[in-house]
Structure formats: C-alpha cells, structure tokens
Design a protein that fits this description.
Strand 4 and strand 5 form a beta hairpin. The strands form three sheets. The protein has an eight-stranded parallel beta sheet. Strands 7-6-9-10 form a four-stranded antiparallel beta sheet. Helix 5 crosses helix 6 and helix 12 crosses helix 14. The chain is of the alpha/beta class and about 550 residues long. It has 20 helices and 14 strands. The chain has a single domain, classed as Glycosidases (TIM Barrel). Helix content is about 40%, strand content about 10%.
C-alpha cells in the first residue's frame, strides 16, 4: 500500500512530516538499556477467579527484582469491554474494578472473612462473567459498610480523589450507573434524551441514581489506591511500569458518550469506523468498528482530550506504550455501512501536531510506539522525527521470506536493529514462542535454527537470549516464554471473538531456576547493573528441561 499523499487534508491536522524532518536530530535519547517481563495483572494467581492487586502482585514484583528485570509491562488497566478485551474498555481513564483485591478490604473493616468464600472457579483461566458476579456483589457490600463506618481520613481521601479526577470521574460514574440501570445495554440503546445527554435527562438521572454513581466513584478510588501502592512497591525496587494507551476507544464507552463531537459521528451513530486494509492474513482487511476521531475538531481544542488522557495514564504508569502508532500518521477509514474493511482508505492523522501539544504541556514522556503491521514511509518518517523507539518482534523475523528481502533487510532480524527500539519475542497477540515454533513449516523451522544456532529444544530461551543480546535498548519477554509454555497459554487470538484474555499462571510455577537464569542473562548482556557493584561476567546456564 502506498503512503497517503501529504496533500490530503480530509480529517487531518496539519501536513505530514517530510523526509527532511526525519533527518533532524531527535530531542529524545533512546531508552536506557533494560529488560522486563510482559504480564497483565489479570494473569496473576489468587483465590478469587482473576488476578488482582493483592499479595500476588507484590510477589511478582519480587520475582522481577530477583530476575534483575527493571520493567513490568502491562496491557491497558481499564474496565474491559467487548470480548473482555482490555483494548475495548468502557473508559480510557478508569481502572478495572475486578482487579481490586477483596482481602485488602477486610483489613479496613469493610468485608468479613466469611464474605470472601468464593464459588469454584478454575485457577488457570479467568471466567469473566462468574468473577464479575462474585466480585461486584462483594464490592457493593464493602461500599455499604464504608458508608456506615468510614474513618475521617478515608472520607477525606475519597473526596480528594473525586475532586482530582472530576474531569472524567463524574461522567464515568453516571455512565456506569446508567448501564447498570439498563441491564448492561450500550448507551446508544438508552432513551434518546439520555443517549444524547440532554440536560434535564442527565439531571434527573443524577438524582435517581445518586447512590449508584457514588458507588462507582468509590470503586475507582479503591482501585487507584491499590494500584498506586503496587506501583510504588515496584518503583522503590527500581522497576519501571510500562503501560498501554490504545489509539482507539470503544463505541460503548463513557468517552464516546460524553465527547461525541470529538468523533466522526452523526448523533449516536458513527459515520466511519477504524480498521486495517487487506493483507496477507485477511483478504477483506479487518473492520474493528471503533469510532474514528475528528482530528480537526480535536486540533481546535488543542487536543485537550488527549492531553487529559496522557495525564491520567501517567498516574498509573511510568512509560507509555502507544498502540497502533501508524494511525497517528494515517489511519484506515472505513465507511460505517461497510461490512468489511476492503473499501476503506488511508486518511492523514494528526501527525506531529498532537505530540507537540503533548510535549508543550506535559514535557518529555518516555514512550515506546507500536509500529507493527502495514508500515508505510510516512509512519517511519513520523516516528523518526519524534525520536520514539519502535517495536521489533522476533516471531516476525522468520517467515518463509525473512531472508529473501533485499540485502536481508527484514526489520525484525536482530542484525538489522538500531538501539532506539524495544524487542519482544512475541506480544499479547502472538502465540507463545513454543506454540509458534511448533506451528512453523519444516522450512521455516530450519530458517530459525540456522539463525539461532541451536537444535530448538529450548526455543523460548533461544529467542529470549537473542533478544537480550541484541542492540535494542529494551527487551521484553512475555512471562509465558520465560516459563516456556505452549499454545494453551496464549493470551489473545486476533479476530477470535471469544476465549481470549483468560490465561493465568498458578502459584509455584515460577521457580528459582527461572529467575536465576534470567538474572544471569540480564547481567551478562548489560541490561542490569547494580549501582554499587562492578559489571558482572556471570553467564546464564541452561537447566535441564522438566521431565
């Protein structure tokens, strides 16, 4: 696909950067050389059917510390939406209530130990519906007790939180209260005065649902308190939190309901939706269905919504991973009445203007940009002009044409890297490395083994070593690859509407042999160094495979 012309202005904001822009020296230096693990908190072990922000989160931080990892990368922390996807959240600002650790509420007198008796829930898979029913009932009971017996300090803390986050919290809490009152129906199916946010209807709803609105505000306060404690525990041990900002938001979200004028919409209906064009994996492309931003209107506000979004995200994470970066250069616009993405077209995004506005108000933000997929020259120009590190995925380096590109220039092969990038064995959208390798053709497997120089019996470790030895500033490995797990541990299959995002590990599966091997590899590849010790020359040694 050719790059869109810089003469296009439809829904764009300013000209796209030129090749001359990309040649200018970047004001942002590469990230420090470091290593980390990708794990979403829902995948932590624990007693209530889903990972949470309790004891297991702190133990995982200690695992990272023991393995000399200085990065914990997460997926979005928002309330999951369609298909239980963290990338389809009901708010770009709120936290996921089901991550709240219930046992911490007993210590504050809001729940009794008997309240925590849980139904039989599988320890290795999240059953979101069952977990939501169980945990929501207990959160409501805890809220009732908070209202009855909260200390003065807790009441003051909640009030301060409400004031600090008023820009999004009041609308989000009303949105959730209305969804509860409508049995979970999307806002576009509410009575029209509510769907279109007519003043009298909203005022009446705030009166009628005042207790429910306050409940959802309280839940967010509890979430932010618990997550802040986990993040502080990590930061105090030299561990940076890397978290996602998905480029798009869900149609059924508080963001779209409150800010319809910021999207390409006609009242409650999108006029165009997001997607990606046809490629080798899909002859008709992918029609994602997210409403598209009206970038001209956003530019007229100084990109206020985006500035607020970055501010909110930076209260939760230290470094941002910006999803679908190519959409900021140009996005695939699909008319809303099209059933597939085949008849979409490239339209310029905001380009440098958005990032200049962010930099002006918030200063330099440490950022990794997800520049995967169909990358046209304008995307590379924009990323290089901004100086952001992109992503390399090792599983993408070994297709049947990986060594047939001109001069071997497959960008995912480590010998083609530049330091200003982050390398992954795979992401949440990939199979585990063990599962991926088993699915390759014999010819593709042979290509991998020629490059790594092993017999492939420990392929997850082979690719981990390859990532750590590369010049990439940052190397991040999914926990599934650290544990050398197969396809049963895959987190997400793109395009599959069900049975995603459910994987959890269990207590005891992370052994000293895992952390010791990773710690030695991290030190020997200069991705960790004690601030008060000389460089180490220890080398990682492979342990024997489990029987």
């Amino acid at each position: 696909m050719s790059a869109p012309s810089s003469q296009q202005t439809d829904q764009g904001s300013g000209p796209l950067p030129t090749l001359e822009d990309a040649k200018q020296p970047s004001a942002q230096s590469p990230l420090p050389r470091a290593a980390g693990i990708l794990l979403h908190p829902t995948s932590l072990p624990g007693p209530h059917g889903i990972g949470d922000l309790g004891a297991a989160a702190y133990r995982f931080v200690e695992v990272l510390e023991a393995a000399r990892q200085t990065i914990w990368q997460l997926m979005p922390l928002g309330p999951v939406g369609l298909g239980n996807s963290p990338y389809a959240a009901s708010s770009a600002f709120a936290g996921f209530p089901l991550l709240i650790a219930l046992d911490q509420l007993t210590g504050r007198g809001w729940l009794d130990r008997s309240d925590l008796d849980a139904p039989e829930l599988p320890p290795a898979q999240v059953q979101f519906d069952a977990v939501a029913e169980y945990k929501t009932a207990r959160l409501k009971k805890a809220f009732e007790r908070f209202e009855q017996r909260a200390s003065g300090d807790d009441t003051a803390s909640l009030e301060a939180f409400q004031e600090r986050h008023r820009a999004w919290l009041d609308d989000y809490a009303l949105f959730m209260a209305l969804k509860d009152a409508h049995m979970g129906a999307g806002w576009m199916n509410w009575d029209r005065p509510l769907a279109l946010r007519q003043g009298a209807a909203l005022a009446q709803a705030r009166r009628d649902l005042a207790a429910d609105v306050r409940f959802h505000q309280w839940v967010q306060w509890v979430f932010f308190e618990q997550w802040t404690s986990v993040r502080t525990y990590a930061n105090d041990r030299g561990i940076t939190i890397v978290g996602d900002i998905p480029i798009f938001v869900a149609w059924d979200s508080a963001d779209v309901w409150v800010h319809r004028e910021q999207f390409q919409m006609d009242d409650e209906q999108p006029t165009a939706v997001a997607g990606v064009p046809p490629d080798a994996f899909s002859k008709t492309g992918q029609r994602w269905g997210n409403p598209l931003y009206d970038w001209d209107r956003m530019a007229a506000t100084g990109y206020r919504w985006w500035l607020d979004r970055f501010k909110a995200t930076l209260e939760l994470v230290d470094t941002v991973r910006l999803d679908h970066f190519r959409g900021f250069a140009a996005y695939w616009r699909v008319p809303a009445d099209e059933e597939t993405a085949i008849n979409g077209r490239w339209v310029p995004g905001p380009g440098k203007a958005l990032f200049e506005a962010i930099d002006k108000e918030l200063g330099h933000i440490p950022m990794i940009v997800e520049d995967l997929g169909e990358i046209t020259p304008d995307v590379i120009v924009l990323r290089e002009a901004l100086g952001f590190p992109g992503m390399k995925v090792l599983q993408f380096a070994f297709g049947d044409d990986a060594h047939d590109t001109p001069r071997g220039q497959n960008p995912y092969l480590p010998h083609n890297y530049e330091p200003n990038c982050a390398v992954y064995t795979g992401t949440h959208d990939n199979d585990t490395t063990v599962g991926w390798f088993a699915s390759l053709s014999p010819e593709e497997r042979a290509s991998v083994l020629r490059y790594v120089g092993t017999d492939g019996s420990r392929i997850a470790r082979d690719l981990t070593r390859l990532a750590y030895q590369s010049v990439a500033a940052v190397a991040v490995i999914p926990l599934q690859d650290v544990l050398e797990l197969g396809p049963e541990a895959r987190m997400n299959v793109p395009g599959r509407p069900e049975h995603n995002w459910t994987w959890r590990y269990q207590d005891g599966v992370i052994q000293p042999r895992h952390t010791e091997w990773l710690a030695a590899l991290t030190a020997s590849t200069a991705r960790w160094r004690s601030p008060d010790a000389p460089a180490t020359d220890e080398k990682p040694e492979d342990d024997e495979p489990d029987a």
